[in-house]
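Entry details:
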Amino acid sequence: MTTAPTRPGDQQAVASPEFTAPAVPYAGGDPYADYRAPAGGFPFQHLPDLADAGLGGTVVAASDEFFAERERLLRPGRAEFDPDLFGPKGKTMDGWETRRRRGSSATAPHPEPGEGDTALIRLGTPGVVRGVVVDTAHFRGNNPQSISVEGAQLPGAPGPEELGDPATVWTTLVPRTPVTGHAANGFAVSTPHRFTHLRLTQYPDGGVARLRVHGEVLPEPAWLTALGTFDVLAQEHGGRVLDASDRFFSSPANTLRPGRPSGMADCWETRRRRDEGHDWIDYALAGEAQVRAIELDTGELRGNAAGWVALHGTDSPAESGSCEWRTLLPRTPLQPDTVHRFLLPEPVGPLVRVRLDIFPDGGVGRLRLHGSLTEQGAADLTARYREAAG
């Protein structure tokens, strides 16, 4: 286990809910039938996954990965289980699994109390962590006894040597806490600092299927200033979904992801409406901004793309209650599986929110709003960054 300076989080992480009963052996059938997770999810799971591999998250290093590779920790989607799949090292598991630790001798066969295996994670989008899910799906008798999670903030792209440097300061986000197998072990985090890397430790050994790190994206202001014009709605820059009319087939947050959609599941698709209404998404921009161009992609949506779209913006935050919406794009027809680009006659702003309306229903793959932060927006982001830098 890496030794380095640590500082406690400002507030202890809270497990919610806690599954205390041990998992039972797999008895056949649907392996998720006895999986333990809160029915409504965790209260922080609406926030972006800062460790999302699609946004650049990766497991930089691990102390041991004898049975299952560390890269599986951040894979999209839930872990899979094939009861008949074995390899030369034993059962093949969809997660990160280490070998069994042993003591120093026959008279001391058990590992020391503080021993554990670590994984070093680079967040895809640095930010303030609000909750962590340590998912032990399918690890029933080989899950860790307990885990801890720490965070660090480092410039650039440090490697394992720099992260393992004894001078690196790690902040405790989740203190060493018991976890159970085949369950979603969730922890709310209140530490207000910005982090670029995490250190997951499992005690004394075992397997974790997935790690999800939910929080608020906080980009580096100097980088956005250097870019000048950028996508002020992108998740990697701090844009986020505030609300949506429908999440039946897929998440509206998919519209903020980088790149073109990889499939329909990587888009926002609503159920078929049988009334006279329409569907919509309410977004918060990365900060107060002016918008110069709109890009809307219906990629991979061929028979279920939205028929028409409209876009409006406001300078009123969601908590203000009432607001006056300004039209950025009037109701406009869409083509399936197409990138649509719209140049605005002049910059529109200042804006802090936009609302995408689709008529009557269907799907949208990506929404890009190319523009720049206003002077006030840049100042607000800089103040947030400095406050969270700790």
User: Anything to note?
Assistant: The longest helix spans residues 375-388. The two ends are 25 Å apart (CA to CA). The longest strand covers residues 339-359.
